[in-house]
């Protein structure tokens, strides 16, 4: 099993959710996060004063899928959330040793 963690633009969340649902991803965790990278933040004027915002709002999307399905999920996230500009995000992939569904006690792929 693989855990896929994607940091994406907030406006891309609904598109990514629809695509993942269409390819059979049954569950995901979504978190609002702040971060910066090459985008470096932005400057705005508020009441005549310059304010520098370095941490930008992003969405962290986490899914655990079977190893066989991981590449398909990664490709779907990249294709759907890509704009070609700085700030599109990153994807991290981790190995998952086991998953257990608390309600039934099922293990591994059965728990997904």
UniProtKB/TrEMBL annotation:
Any one of the GO CC terms: cytosol
GO molecular function: ATP binding; enzyme regulator activity
InterPro entries, per the entry: N-reg_PII, N-reg_PII-like_a/b, N-reg_PII/ATP_PRibTrfase_C, N-reg_PII_CS
Biological processes per GO annotation: regulation of nitrogen utilization
Pfam families (alphabetical): P-II
Ranges that cross the membrane: none
SMART domains named among the record's database cross-references: P-II
Family assignment from sequence similarity: Belongs to the P(II) protein family.
Protein name: Nitrogen regulatory protein P-II
Organism ancestry: Bacteria, Bacillati, Bacillota, Clostridia, Eubacteriales
